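Cross-posting from the chemistry board since nobody answered there.

I work mostly on the small-molecule side, so proteins are not my area. We synthesized S-adenosylmethionine and want a rough idea of how it might sit in this target. Sequence and SMILES are below. Is it possible to get a predicted 3D structure of the two together?
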Amino acid sequence: MAIQKKHAKARLDKYYYLAKEKGYRARAAFKLIQLNKKFSFLQQAKCLIDLCAAPGSWLQVAAETMPQKSLIVGVDLSPIKPIPKAITFQGDITTDKCRATIRGHLKTWKADCVIHDGAPNVGTAWVQDAFSQNELVLSSLKLATEFLAPNGAFVTKVFRSKDSAKLEWIFKQLFNRVEQTKPPSSRNVSAETFYVCRGFKAPKHLDSRFLDPKYAFAEVEDAAVNNEAKVFNPEKKKRKREGYDEGDWTQFHEAPASEFIQTQDPIKMLGSLNRLHFRQEDNGDIALAALDKLPETSEEVKECCADLKVLGRKEFKLLLRWRLKARNRFGFRQKKSANPAAGSNATTAVGTADDAAAEGAERDEGVTVEPMDDEMKLQEEVQHMKDLQTKAKRKERRKDNERKQKETTRMQMGMMVPSEIGIEAGAPLGDDTTFRLKDVDKADIGRQITRGRMHTLVESEKKTDDSEDEVESDEEGDALEEQLDSMYAQYQEKREDRDAKAKAKRARKEANNDHEDEFEGFGEKGGNKAEDTDASSDADLIEDEDDELDTDEEDVELLNELRPKEEKKGALSGRAASFFQQDIFKDLDGLDDGAESEAEKEQDSGVDVDSPPLKDAEDDEEEAEEDGIELAEEDESDDEIEDVHRSDEEDWASGDEAPDAHEEGRPNIDIITAEAMTLAHALASGKVTKQQLEDDNFSKFSHRDTDGLPEWFLDDEGKHSKRQRPVSAEAAKAIKEKLRALNARPIKKVREAKARKTMRTARRLEKLKKKSEGLAEGDDLSEKDKANSIAKLMAKAKKSGGKSKRPAVKVVKAGGANKGSGRPRGVKGKYKMVDSRLKKDVRAEKRLAEKMKGKKR
Ligand SMILES: C[S@@+](CC[C@H](N)C(=O)[O-])C[C@H]1O[C@@H](n2cnc3c(N)ncnc32)[C@H](O)[C@@H]1O
C-alpha cells in the first residue's frame, strides 16, 4: 500500500517492532492473532484460504495456529515469499482464473475458514479506496461462498463507509453469527474494521445479485428530509448517524436571501441552508439589493439570516413572515394552497402579522408540507415546558437531598459545624447588640415588652410562620427529616457504645430535660411547681431587666401587671423568682422569699446551693453560674474520702449528701473554669458591674426556640453555639495550678484502700496486744520466755504484715521430659503443668469473662 513518507515514522508503533521481533512479515499479523484470540476460528480449521495475503503475515499466523497437516492457500496480486506449510500463488481475487487456481489447490476439500485482508493498491481518494475495498470484500465473499464448508467462518476487513451497512446486511443473510470488531492493533486513525462471520449457511441457490456490487451497493432512495421538523422543532437536533452526503465536502450551504423570497419551498431552504446572504455578486442581483433596502429587512432579520442553524421556532417564524411581506412588496403572485384540505382557509396569508402568517407561508405557492395544527403545537409546547419544569424540580430536589445527606455525614464525622450550614453567627453589629435593653428602650419597645405585647406578637408571628412552614413542608421533606433523625440516633448510639463519657453526658442531658420540662431549669426545693410554666415563658421575656427598669417605679408596676394575680402569690416562675430575689425588690409585696428561688437557681445552671438566700453576692453568683463557677459540694470534715465535684461527673456522684454552700456566712464557691475565674476577677476588681453582666446576658444565646428542631441540630447548637467568654492569662494559670493540686490528691479508691490497710493494722495490733497480755499474765513461763515469745509474735506480725503466706506454685511446661501423667521429675511441692493449649484456653476464658462483664454493665 502507498504510505506517505512523512507519516512513516509515526506508523512505527509497538506492533511494528513486535512483528519484527517475532519474525512476522507485517504488523498485520497481530490483527489476526487478536481476532483469533477473541473468536477462535483458527484452532479447529483444517483448510484455510487467505485472500490478498502478501506479504504473508496472516499466513504465518495461520500456519502457526492451525493444526498440523492443515491446508493453507494464499493468494495476492503481489508475489508472496514461500511460507512453510502454506501454498501461495499470484493472482487477482476478482478473476475466474484465481478461482480456478484455488479450486485446483483445494481439490475436493472445503475451506473451514476464508480470511480476507485486501486493500486496493490505489491510494487516490478515500471514497474511491473505500468503494474498491468494498468491491474487493464482495469478491472475497463470492469466493468464500464457493469454497466454504457449511458452518465455516469468513473473516474480512471492511472500510467504514456508507456501504459497510449494506455489506453487513449481506453477511447476515449468509452467516448465522456476524460480529464486527476492531482489534487493538488496528490503528484508531484507520477506518478499517473487521467482520467475523461464523456459521456459514451454505445456501444451495444464491441470487447472483447478492454479490454483485452494482446491486449490493445500489443507492436506496433516501427518505425525504423532514425540513418541516427542522424548522418547527429546531431545538430537537438529530444526529447524523447515517453519515454525511457524499460530495458534500464543506457541510456549509448558503444562498442569496432573494432566492428565499422567490422560492416555492421556503421551509426546505430554511431547513437545509446555513446562511441566507445579502452579498452583492459582480453580476449585480437587483432583487437582492432591493430586498436589502426594504424596511421589513430589519437588523434582526439579517442577524437571523446570518446563521440559520442556531435559530429557534420564533426566529424561523419571523423569517417566514418577512418573506411574505417581501413577496407582497415585490408583487409576487400568491397561490392557493395545494392542500385541498385547507380549502378556502388556505388563501393568501399576506397582511396578517401573527403566527398564521408564518403558517400561511407554507400554504402559499403550492408548498406541500402539512401545516401543524396551532392548538396541537401549543399543547405540545406547554407539555414540553411542563416536562422541563418537572425535570428541573426533580433534579434540584435530588441535589438538595444529596447535599443534606453529605452534610449529615460530614457532621457525624466532625468535619463541619452547624454554622457552616447556614446558622448565622451573630447580629450585624455584634452579638450583644441585638438584645441590648438600652436600644430596646430607646425604641420604646421596652414598654411593649413589659406589657407582654411582644409575647403576643411573637406568638402570632410564630403561628404564621408555622402555617407557612406547613404549606412548604412536603412529604419528602418529612421523610428526609425522619431519615436524618434516625441516622443521628444511630450515630449517637454507636458513639455511646464506644465512649462512656458520651453515654454519661446523654444521661445527664436527659435528666436535665426532665427538670426543664418540669420547671424551666429550676430546682425542686423552692416548691415552685410546673403549673406556672406558662408564666415562666412569659417571664422569660422580662427576666433580668436592667437597672433602668429596676429603679423606675412605673416599670416596676408594669412588671407586676404582667403576672396574673394568683401567680404573684406563690407561683412565680423560676427565673422571675430569682430575679425578684434582688435586694431592690425586698420591700415589694406579693413576692416570695428567696429561700425557694435559691434552689431554683441551683438547678438552673448547676450551682449547688443549700443555704438561705445570699445577699450581696447573689447576682454575681447568678452570672458566675453560667460560667462554670460551682458551689463546692465537698464535705471538708471527711478527710478520708473526699468527692471532687465536677460538672462532668455529676452523674456518678451520689448526690445524697446535702452540700454545704456556705462557710462562716460566706458562699462556698468553687471556681473551676478559666472563664469563671476571669469573670470573678473582673467582678472583684470592679472592671465589670453586675448590671453590665445582666445586660450582657440578653443575647442571642439567652432564649432559643427549640420547638421542632431536630436533636442533632440541638446537640450541635449546645456544643458550638455558645458565648465565648474572655480568658485572661492569669486566670488560666490560676486554674491550671488548682487542677494540678487536685490531680496531686490521691483518688478515692486509693484513699479507701489506705484506710482499709490502716484499719487492718489497727485490728492486728489489737490482737497482738491481747495475745501479749495473755502471755504476760500466764504463770507457766519464765519472764525470759515470756519476753521471747512476745518478741517473736511482734516480729512475725511485722514481717507478714498480717498476711498468711501462700505456698508458691511451680509452673512446669508440659512436653519433652515432662510428657505423660505423674509428677515431673525433680519438682517438689505444688506444681502446675502448662502447655500451649492451656495458655490459649485460659486466654479464651479471660476474654469471655470480660465480655460477660461488659454485657452486664
Ligand atoms: C494489507 S495487505 C494484506 C496483508 C496481509 N494480510 C498480511 O498479513 O501480510 C493488502 C493486500 O491486498 C492485495 N490486493 C489488493 N487487491 C487485490 C486483488 N484484487 N487481488 C489480490 N490481492 C489484492 C494487495 O496486493 C496487498 O498486498
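Reply from a structural biologist on the board:
Welcome over. Reading the output above for you: The longest helix spans residues 374-412. The radius of gyration is 51 Å. Happy to explain the C-alpha cell format if needed.
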